[in-house]
Amino acid sequence: MIIAVVNQKGGTAKTTTTVNLGKALADAGKRVLLVDLDAQGSLGYSLGIQEAPHSIADVLAGEIDLSQALIDREGLQVVASQIGLADLELELAGMQERELLLAGVLQSVEESFDVILIDCPPSLSLLTVNALSAANQVIIPMQMEVLSLQGLDLISETITKIKAALNPHLEVLGILPVMVDKRRKLSSEVREHIQENYPFRIFDTNIRPNVRASEAPSFGQSVISYAPDSNSSKDYQQLANEVLNNL
Amino acid sequence: MIIAVVNQKGGTAKTTTTVNLGKALADAGKRVLLVDLDAQGSLGYSLGIQEAPHSIADVLAGEIDLSQALIDREGLQVVASQIGLADLELELAGMQERELLLAGVLQSVEESFDVILIDCPPSLSLLTVNALSAANQVIIPMQMEVLSLQGLDLISETITKIKAALNPHLEVLGILPVMVDKRRKLSSEVREHIQENYPFRIFDTNIRPNVRASEAPSFGQSVISYAPDSNSSKDYQQLANEVLNNL
Ligand SMILES: Nc1ncnc2c1ncn2[C@@H]1O[C@H](COP(=O)(O)OP(=O)(O)OP(=O)(O)O)[C@@H](O)[C@H]1O
Ligand SMILES: Nc1ncnc2c1ncn2[C@@H]1O[C@H](COP(=O)(O)OP(=O)(O)OP(=O)(O)O)[C@@H](O)[C@H]1O
Ligand SMILES: [Mg+2]
Ligand SMILES: [Mg+2]
Asked: pLDDT for B172-220, tens place per residue?
């Protein structure tokens, strides 16, 4: 089970979702791998990983095996990234089969994990295309905002193209409403617009705004470890159940 | 006066700030140009521009003059972008002087405008480097959040390098706290950390969270036109005054 966490719109809780959904699945007994595909490295940073000896860039460049880049955190395995990943992305642009690099790398470890979650950068560039070509499922965390909606067409088109050309098994597991203030009229209008215009499921679980979720990274912890009784923890545990029930 | 609106962290109100600071400056009598440098095109979208006949990609590719790409909106001139800009960025990677393309293009119109604002994508890739090489001022809109702080080192480093190698006139006008809930302890902790560790001014103006700011794009308007009495309008008008007083 390989899940790409995708949204080219910035700041839609992709990293927060990858960390905390991953942690909730691990707590439910699954063997979980988190892969940071964003050169900015927020995923590793959120889990207290500073100066990782190896990063996903080294693995994609063929310099080391994925297994050498694994870091233990909170019962999860994590592959961190760092800024060199941006240069690698430029180099890859000239290569053959450049969209399938990650798929090849993950094949070697797919048997060792129940769930692999890939945190994507806020772009639809080559790294995100690699994630969508390697994954069998996609989660799209989205704010129920007008500017978030603008991006949904493009994600949808990109997924259709990748299904046709590179990865016929790709499915959208669902759109995850994040940081949603349910009282706001705009939020329900955006949600209805999605329901009427897109074929994707919208998760029943909504991730509510909660300060604990944004505090947790400063302690290098998932919010589930940092604030186990918070609404954020409960939301992500509920999401983990919904994900497992829908697979 | 050319201002790059920069932050590689996603969703930090770069686009919302470019639109509304631009509008407030135009209302104060300035001749203002807005340039959308993000292939996702949120700036044009926020001002109701659909299917622009020409985009900044055509201008950077040398196919048309900047003056042919100008679109009138609310007393501002706007150059929109579209998804082709992402492909252009890849093509540029192989070129000589590829960082100075935008600088060259803006030189031809600098006399016609008092303020040019450049909306940057959530990355420090070639397009943002072009913006930083063309600009004389930088505004960094930032949430007072831990994950926003992670990005500040990298922006700071990038600006230092560009000043040394490409654009000695580049100055950081200031960090703009956006969507800040002042009651939250984390917000003031992040702010203090910035004050103690970075040489940059933090604007006195804070952009408060306000639903009007996120509704305005669905009407294709700046929040100043859409909701002139809202806190968002007041905040951006106050920011315009602060910007003019600090230049
Ligand atoms: N449920 C939540 N409640 C409050 N704040 C949140 C929540 N989830 C995430 N945040 C905060 O919102 C900001 C954006 O989240 P995050 O960095 O996970 O988004 P992202 O989509 O990965 O961003 P990018 O596009 O830059 O990769 C961060 O400061 C994060 O701490
Ligand atoms: N003051 C505000 N109050 C409430 N919502 C806001 C405010 N400013 C911006 N927003 C909303 O927050 C989201 C992010 O804003 P915006 O798109 O301007 O950020 P950005 O930095 O340009 O994002 P990206 O990195 O994707 O380019 C949008 O949905 C926007 O409407
Ligand atoms: Mg992220
Ligand atoms: Mg933007």
From this structure: 999 999 999 888 899 999 999 999 999 999 999 999 999 999 999 999 9
Under CATH, what is the fold of the domain A2-246? Rossmann fold (3.40.50)
Which residues 6+ apart lie within 8 Å of A109 measured at CB?
Answer: A33, A66, A67, A116
What's chain A look like in SS3?
CEEEECCCCCCCCHHHHHHHHHHHHHHCCCCEEEEECCCCCHHHHHCCCCCCCCCHHHHHCCCCCHHHHCEEECCEEEECCCCHHHHHHHHHCCCCCHHHHHHHHHHCCHHHCCEEEEECCCCCCHHHHHHHHHCCEEEEEECCCHHHHHHHHHHHHHHHHHHHHCCCCCEEEEEEEECCCCCCHHHHHHHHHHHHHCCCCECCCCECCCHHHHHHHHHCCCHHHHCCCCHHHHHHHHHHHHHHHCC
Which helix (DSSP H) or strand (DSSP E) does residue B145 occupy? none
Name which residue sits closest to atom 7 of ligand 1, judged by CA: A213
Tokens of B53: 């006949």
Q: Binning pLDDT at 50, 70 and 90, where does residue A183 land?
A: confident
Residue-wise pLDDT tens digits, B93-136: 778 889 999 999 999 999 999 999 999 999 998 999 999 999 99
DSSP result, B157-185? HHHHHHHHHT-TT-EEEEEEEBS--TT-H
Whether B87 and chain A come into contact, CB under 8 Å, resolves to no
Q: Which atom of ligand 1 approaches the CA of A7 most closely? A: 21
Query: pLDDT at position B23, please?
Result: 98
- Give the residue, A64 or A83, on which the prediction is more confident: A64
pLDDT given for residue B19 in this prediction: 98
Task: Please write the tens of the pLDDT for every residue from B45-64.
Answer: 999 998 899 999 999 999 99
Output the CA angle A105-A108-A112, nearest 5 degrees. 125
CB A223 near ligand 1, within 6 Å: no
Q: Any residues with CB less than 8 A from the CB of A154 and at least 6 apart, and which?
A: A8, A124, B40, B83
Q: What is the DSSP letter of B121?
A: P
Tell me what pLDDT residue B5 has: 98
Whole-number Å distance between alpha carbons of A90 and A93 = 5
The average pLDDT across A158-165 equals 95
Q: Which of B15, B142, B148 gets mutated to test ligand 2 (max ligand atoms within 8 A of its CB)?
A: B15
Antiparallel, parallel or unpaired: β B137-142 and B32-36: unpaired
**CB-count exposure of residue B169 (10 Å: 0-12, 13-18, 19+):** exposed
A164 and B CB contact within 8 Å: no
